[in-house]
């Protein structure tokens, strides 16, 4: 089979399997299979049985819904790469926007700011924050040891182990001291919506990273209620939320949790996505 024929076969298989943008995915999978990108391919070159076998296995896995990032083992986040492991949440583009918002606030803080990332997963937000300010001291927690191991790998790989402390904790349970900035992308899918998530998410992302309880607000409310005790005066809390949750969270925050200047910002798709609150 030539490269052109292999691409056409892969594209057809992926389209039949319901994979969106099948032609693009076919090219990405072939690049993974042969270990080099389209610039190095000649359409009429014959693919060896070894590479064809690899392509077939990748196409089959993708048809079963396995996310591309898990097949590749890596994903991009802002301007750096993160290792992704099965069972650890794959960072999403919305969270890159959360990171940009957080980095904007971080740059305004006085020297040696203490920063906290709650539910760090691969360590995406913690790494983005540590890279944004070399004097920031970042603490990143997760309740899942597997996520922490993956985050540790990424932190080391990015040379940030001196400035990011990883810790097992159920939200604030094992934390002490005050932070000038707390960020989190907590689980926020309403429980009854879990079954309607795309297969790629439903079957390949860990439930604890998605399930936000009956209305999807359990984790966010728990963080909101406890955050003021761990924020220094004037410190910021930033949360990623699901569209439709903003009003409930702003009302909850105004009900006396100790946050002022609460506001909600939209993501690039125009959806209410980020909750911001400042400690008195
Ligand atoms: C949606 S994922 C976000 C991961 C990462 N921050 C990102 O944005 O890519 C939520 C993370 O919160 C963690 N988590 C869930 N419940 C937790 C809890 N009670 N305490 C600490 N971490 C928790 C999950 O293990 C998961 O890694």
How would you portray this structure in words?
This protein is of the alpha/beta class and 280 residues long. The protein folds into two domains: 3-64; 75-279, Rossmann fold, CATH 3.40.50.150. 39% of the residues lie in helices and 20% in strands. The chain contains ten helices and nine strands. It starts with a helix and ends with a strand. Bound molecules: S-adenosylmethionine. S-adenosylmethionine binds at residues 89, 91, 95, 119-122, 124-125, 141-144, 147, 170-171, 185-187, 208-209. Residues 89, 91, 95, 119-122, 124-125, 141-144, 147, 170-171, 185-187, 208-209 line the site of S-adenosylmethionine.
Task: Output the keywords.
alpha/beta; two-stranded antiparallel ribbon; 10 helices; 280 residues; Rossmann fold; 7-stranded mixed sheet; 2 domains; binds S-adenosylmethionine; elongated
List how many beta strands DSSP finds. 9
Give the H and E element order: HHHHEEHEHEHEEHHEHEE
Assembly level? single chain
| Helix-and-strand structural type | alpha/beta
Largest β-sheet summary? 7 strands, mixed
Low-confidence stretches: none
Q: Indicate the CATH class of the largest domain.
A: Alpha Beta
Please work out how many helical segments DSSP would assign: 10
Q: Estimate the helix proportion, in percent.
A: 25-40%
* Tally of domains: 2
């Amino acid at each position: 089979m030539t490269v052109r024929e292999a691409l056409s076969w892969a594209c057809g298989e992926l389209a039949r399997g319901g994979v969106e943008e099948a032609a693009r995915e076919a090219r990405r999978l072939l690049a993974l299979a042969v270990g080099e990108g389209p610039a190095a391919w000649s359409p009429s070159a014959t693919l060896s049985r070894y590479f064809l076998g690899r392509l077939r296995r990748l196409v089959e896995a993708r048809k079963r819904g396995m996310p591309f990032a898990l097949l590749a083992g890596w994903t991009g986040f802002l301007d750096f790469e993160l290792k992704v492991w099965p069972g650890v949440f794959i960072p999403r583009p919305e969270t890159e926007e959360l990171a940009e918002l957080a980095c904007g606030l971080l740059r305004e803080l006085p020297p040696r700011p203490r920063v906290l990332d709650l539910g760090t997963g691969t360590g995406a937000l913690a790494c983005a924050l540590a890279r944004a300010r070399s004097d920031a001291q970042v603490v990143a927690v997760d309740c899942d040891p597997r996520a922490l191991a993956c985050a540790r790998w990424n932190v080391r790989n990015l040379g940030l182990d001196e400035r990011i402390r990883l810790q097992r904790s159920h939200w604030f349970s094992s934390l002490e001291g005050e932070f000038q900035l707390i960020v989190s992308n907590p689980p926020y899918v309403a429980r009854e919506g879990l079954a309607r998530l795309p297969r790629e998410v439903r079957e390949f992302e860990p439930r604890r990273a998605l399930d936000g309880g009956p209305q999807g607000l359990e984790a966010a409310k728990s963080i909101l209620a406890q955050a003021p005790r761990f924020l220094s005066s004037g410190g910021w809390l930033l949360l990623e939320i699901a569209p439709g949750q903003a009003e409930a969270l702003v009302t909850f925050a105004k009900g006396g949790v100790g946050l002022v200047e609460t506001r909600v910002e939209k993501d690039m798709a125009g959806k209410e996505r980020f909750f911001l609150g400042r400690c008195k």
